[in-house]
Fold this sequence. Notes:
It contains six helices and nine strands; from the N terminus they run ααβααββαβββαβββ. The chain is of the alpha+beta class. The longest helix is centred in the first third of the chain and has 19 residues, at 27-45. It has a domain at 83-243: Lipocalin. 24% of the residues lie in helices and 25% in strands. It has helices at residues 27-45, 62-74, 102-107, 113-116, 143-152, 207-213, and strands at 92-99, 126-130, 134-140, 163-172, 178-187, 190-192, 218-224, 228-233, 238-243.
Amino acid sequence: MICSLVSAYAFHPTLAPSTPKIAHRSRAAVADLAAAKSALFAALDGAPDRGLAEYEDYQTPAWVSAVADAVDALQPLDPSRGDWMVDPAFSGSWLLAYTSSPTFRRNRGLSGYETFVDGVETPQLVMELLPRSKLSFEEPLDDESAAALATHFRLSDDEPPESVEIDCSWVVGADDSLRLTFSAVRVGSKTLEPVNAAAQGKDVVDFDADKAIRVLEVTRPVYVDNDVLILRALTDAFFVWERAAFELE
């Protein structure tokens, strides 16, 4: 569970990016990396939270191209050089700062409950990289959202959910992709499984919400260091994560 209030979270670390793995880089390369990261943070500061503002395709806001350009500039400077799966930085807790994914924007989050259940808001997404190739996502809930989901799932009033939790495992897929297998979605005492478990007679995620979580099913980590992780989907949509200043319990 998240160990502090939702409102206490902050998306951005200080704009003094660290420069890991600099032992084999020239001073010019280190300066280029620092400048590119600062440019990304500046672009994120000019964008709405997670990039989820609605806009018409023919009236694309300037912040959309600003963030995309900053990501494109940073990607070739990836300190992991494509070996993200063995990089020590590929671990711990990450907070989603921005995504260009139209699907994620339409669903207002990973679980999709903000779109599919009245009264629910999921304004933050935390990803936790765990030992033994396990991975979890968590969307913290405020009191109103917890009550709405408790009603939706007919949960006990004595145990309102604190968050939506999504359990996964991961493997390295084709082209060094990060391929996720979703095992469960948990909302308080309610545990749902992906729809392919329906034949087992278990509670399952409804079709629309199940589709929502699959927006991150296959991505490729194109940049990772101690501060920033960028995942790019097969659709070329990208997800920018920042190192969280807290750990999940």
